[in-house]
Design goal:
The structure holds two protein chains of two kinds. Chain A is an alpha/beta fold. Chain A is built from twelve helices and eight strands. The chains are: A alpha/beta, B alpha/beta.
Chain lengths: 290, 298
């Protein structure tokens, strides 16, 4: 039951801190109606006791690598979308491709030119996944909405995974686009699509487990959740039939420090054989890492 | 106003008669036709037509290619889009038409089932790459299960058509075969044109009874067109003819329905009676199709 150390953890949700955290969440700030959210630096911060800050850090790439090193994260997936506008992302890619692999954030409102750009990103950066936050789109777009389908089709063609936020969103936005039940018809229509949920699937974790049992290419990643809050349904499933289905993802530097995550992780009651699958092997397989 | 003679007419909807009995062409619909009457028809929309073209596939003299070419020659049709699936085993006669008359025939690709999303997008890529198809056709009410014009599965398909640069031709309006109509409501087109501003979308089979809405949508969306397939010219909707004569001369495209429901002889007997204005005739009979489908005059 003990969590192994030094196995080279893969973290499938990592970020290089943006220069302006307020601006980084600006893409959906216009849709927030409540006054409280507008005062938050990070629109889900009410859910977290504290969240990482990086004032005074001069080298954001070194800052992230130092944090990864401290807790034993060998590789992590970052969003390469800002490559051409954020020198830190370009530098991470240029100098540290042994430590980082890449995903591409999309809005289905980008339409067919956006799909062409993602296909180009596959050539440039060997992206391993497309990522999307359905509740954060303006206007919102449901997981099974028609606008999403061309992107799922493109992921199948590129043979990359898609990572989609599912469950009630933290930011104070309507939840309907991320209902877990919407995943069912997507998996039916795209049997070859590798679909990885992000951000917890709560409160529909039992349904997420049913769907993972039903659909071979559906996976769950633990992003945005401190390990002490991993849903019991998910841990139980990992320990029984779902050892291959649950993938570690952190939430650094958005809402959780790696120190906090790795302080709590040993308390998760995974069985021995689950740990390396959860921390490394499932990610390597689903994201087709070398 | 009279229909001019000698134009290189381009028919955007034709096919080669199949070997074997005519009803075999329509078996794909039978799994969801519910009424007994439809299953006894040689052609599931035949109740709408006074007669429909017949051929004797068992006659030793029967040649499907000559049957088409003679019909075209008799009626002054210079070129046609032949609707077919080049991956089907019965493609041979259509292929022979192309081989024998490469300047007269072009391929329109039919026989897609968007219920298989990735199979459909891959097939579109193959057809464009390997066969140079001019358009990709869908029959939303005729697939099983039905796939509406604005269905998410169609969105993946439309995105592929934009990517490879091929127009779609989609049946719209109440279908003739006794199948539910919802999948082909004209209002579903609006959202598709909004989400795919670069998609070239041509309607098939009339858009009735929502032809007024179709005119509104053609005025609104630059890449939306109407083709007259499955309608005898005497039944072309008045709203469509009026639109062609006013702001829509570039939007209405001639398509026949041979050999399914109408002979070319019938179509071109009726045709001079359509009250198109002088400048509309050449656009309607070939120029619009040439521009939209990129087909040179012979």
């Amino acid at each position: 039951m003990a969590m192994p150390t030094d196995i080279g953890v893969i973290d499938t949700h990592m970020g290089i801190p943006p220069r302006d955290k307020v601006e980084a969440y600006g893409f959906f700030r216009d849709m927030l109606h409540d006054e409280g959210s507008k005062d938050m630096t990070f629109p889900a911060e009410y859910m977290f006791k504290d969240y990482p800050t990086y004032e005074g850090e001069t080298d954001m790439v070194a800052f992230v690598l130092r944090n990864m090193d401290e807790v034993g994260v060998a590789r992590s997936m970052i969003n390469i979308r800002r490559h051409d506008t954020d020198p830190n992302i370009a530098r991470a890619h240029q100098d540290h491709s042994d430590r980082f692999f890449y995903c591409w954030s999309f809005s289905p409102h980008e339409g067919t030119p956006g799909i062409a750009a993602m296909k180009e990103a596959k050539q440039r950066f060997d992206i391993k996944a497309a990522i999307c936050f359905p509740c954060g789109l303006n206007p919102q777009v449901g997981i099974s909405d028609a606008l999403m389908y061309p992107w799922y089709a493109a992921c199948c063609e590129l043979d990359i995974a898609v990572c989609i936020n599912a469950g009630v969103p933290g930011p104070r936005l309507p939840l309907w686009p991320q209902k877990v039940e919407l995943i069912d018809s997507v998996m039916y229509d795209f049997p070859d699509l590798r679909f990885v949920t992000r951000h917890g699937c709560e409160p529909w974790t039992a349904l997420a487990v049913k769907l993972m049992l039903k659909w071979p290419n559906l996976y769950y990643s633990t992003s945005a959740f401190a390990p002490k809050y991993y849903p019991a349904d998910i841990v139980d499933y990992a320990n029984t039939r779902g050892g291959d289905k649950i993938i570690y993802a952190g939430y650094f530097p958005d809402g959780l420090s790696l120190q906090r995550i790795f302080r709590e992780l040993p308390g998760v009651p995974f069985r021995d054989h689950v740990w390396p699958l959860f921390l490394r092997d499932n990610a390597a397989s689903v994201f087709q890492l070398d | 106003m009279p229909m001019p003679e000698g134009l290189p007419i381009l028919d955007t909807y034709m096919s080669v008669p199949t070997r074997g009995a005519k009803h075999l062409r329509y078996l794909f619909m039978h799994k969801h036709l519910r009424d007994d009457g439809s299953k006894e028809m040689a052609f599931p929309a035949e109740y709408m037509f006074k007669d429909h073209p017949q051929w004797d596939p068992d006659s030793p003299d029967f040649d499907p290619v000559s049957f088409v070419v003679e019909s075209m020659d008799r009626n002054g049709v210079a070129q046609t889009i032949l609707m077919a699936d080049p991956e089907r085993p019965d493609f041979g006669d259509t292929k022979r038409a192309f081989d024998q008359h490469p300047d007269r025939f072009f391929l329109g690709s039919a026989n897609f089932d968007p219920n298989d999303v990735m199979g459909t997008t891959a097939k579109i890529e193959r057809h464009v790459r390997d066969h140079g198809v001019k358009l990709i056709q869908f029959f939303p009410s005729g697939t099983s299960p039905q796939v509406p014009i604005d269905d998410p599965k169609m969105y993946a398909v439309y995105a592929k058509c934009v990517e490879v640069g091929v127009p779609v031709a989609v049946c719209a309006g109440v279908p003739g075969p006794r199948l539910p109509m919802d999948a082909q409501h004209v209002e579903l087109i609006d959202r598709v044109m909004y989400d795919f501003p670069n998609l070239v979308f041509i309607t098939r089979h009339g858009c009735e009874p929502w032809e007024d809405l179709m005119v509104k949508l053609m005025l609104k969306w630059p890449n939306l067109y109407y083709s007259t397939s499955a309608f005898a010219p005497k039944h072309y909707p008045k709203a469509i003819v009026d639109y062609a004569n006013t702001r829509g001369a570039d939007k209405i495209i001639y398509a026949g329905y041979f050999p399914d429901g109408l002979s070319l002889d019938r179509i071109f007997t009726d045709m001079p009676g359509v009250p198109f204005r002088d400048h509309v005739w050449p656009k309607f009979l070939h120029e619009n199709a040439r521009r939209v489908l990129d087909i040179a005059a012979p």
